[in-house]
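Throughout our pipeline, every protein is held as a single compact record rather than as scattered files. Nothing more is needed to write down the fold, since each code stands for a local backbone conformation. The record that follows is passed on verbatim for readers who wish to inspect the format.
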Amino acid sequence: EARLTLGDGRRVTLREPATAPTAARAIDALAHRLTDRLVPTLRKAPWPSTPQDLPALQAYAAAARAWDARDWANAERAADASVAAAPTFGLAHYRLAQLASLRGARNEARDHAAAARAALLPLPAEADAVMAAFTAWLDDTRRGEALEAYAALASRYPARLDFALAHAALLIHAGEPHQAARVLEGDRWRTATPLQAIRRLLTLADAQRSRLALPEARRTVQDALQHIARDPRGRSAELGRARMLAAALESQDPSRPRSPALFALAGEAYEAAGDPLHRDYARFVAGTYDPAMTPARMEAMAAQLLADARRVGDVPIEVAILRQSAWA
């Protein structure tokens, strides 16, 4: 059974009869009916079939429920179980790519994204464009390609605020913070989900900091922290990012004493998010503000962090470690 709300507000329930032996086929049929109802213009397009493996589908459903609950650890465990049962299940690989990217494991995310795309082809051109953009975004050597792809997607699908967020983040990376800020403005953001609203504020603060509008950036980060405080469940990664931004902005204020406290708090949030690389980076930066930290200890921490960043393929963190080491 699938329940959905259409654009005009009508609620529809789709059912497909099944017994235990035919459950996998019924799920596949229901998935195609759901796609036809949601995207009628692609009714005749080539969509991949779901695997005829009930344990894989049950594990994927568990991963979807955990994802909706923002329970990233259980979502990843369930998606892993789905791929173990059906190694060519493209949607499960795609979910694992998303989850790996959340914790900064970019090499792992790229592997799952590549497996997902290979398993899901042939896809309608519209869906393949989304997959191609995500794959390019995971590869730091293809940021220009990713920027073009997300700019096109954001223009074609203005209601998809996730595309707009990716577009804005890539503009900041490309040295265009003013343009990024424009992407993050407008009435369409009134429809943002709570998580999208938080990520919009954090990306806007990044843009403001990049163009040295520091008082504005501080206010925006505080706004983001207030949003997180209203519903903190599953927001640990965003809390870590917000605290890192707040700490960095505080360190740029000459009227305030240098303090490792906020960086250490960011590390705690990343710990809760299951992101050891960003946790250790936050602790490393905190150490650069700690007068008790010895140069030898800092060098050892930097060397270990660089090794970890290179192992998982997180180039932005690698660059940040080198920059912070030079400033320390």
Remarks:
- The first helix runs from residue 23 to 38.
- The beta strands are 2-5, 11-14.
- Residues 232 and 239 are 8 Å apart (CA to CA).
